[in-house]
Amino acid sequence: MEIILKEDVIGLGYKHDIVNVKPGYGRNYLIPQGKGVIASESAKKQLAEELKQKAKKLEKIKADAQALADKLTGVALTIEAKVSNSGTIYGSVNNVQIADELSKLGFDIDRKLILIKDVKTVGEHQAVVRLHKEVSVVIPVTVVPDAPIAAPEPAPAVEAPAAAEAPEVQDEAAAEAEVLENIDAAPFQEA
Asked: What confidence tens digit (pLDDT) does each residue in 131-141 have?
């Protein structure tokens, strides 16, 4: 089923895109919510006329997105996270934390426009900010521990057994073997 989107739908398309969706998704969600209309021939002609009239507005929107992208080009984020002794993060760093860090720097960007896989390790990662369907920016994200990682304590040194203790160990092993032989040799008794 072809649908003309009336607004941006994350993961599906942008306003005025013609997309193919399953009939149930179109009839039960997109159309009733006002997010799209059926792409009939008359609707497509109306869309083409509307796009001609809005071409200048769309260019301005794209130019604004490009200007914001140019400002974001030099931005690099450092996010502190609680880290275990092994270097893994408790939880993860996702688009919500990145949106918060960008807002601290003065960029008001919706978290839904930020694409990043959940980061579960300390180190360098990349987030993609999709400002327009033709404009996106890659932002480097560095995840660092909020406190220094404590080095694991070395295990206490174990002294080698003395030569005098070695025969006792052998005697214990021989005694254990003798007990096992007696158990195997003893007939089973019923109670």
From this structure: 888 888 999 99
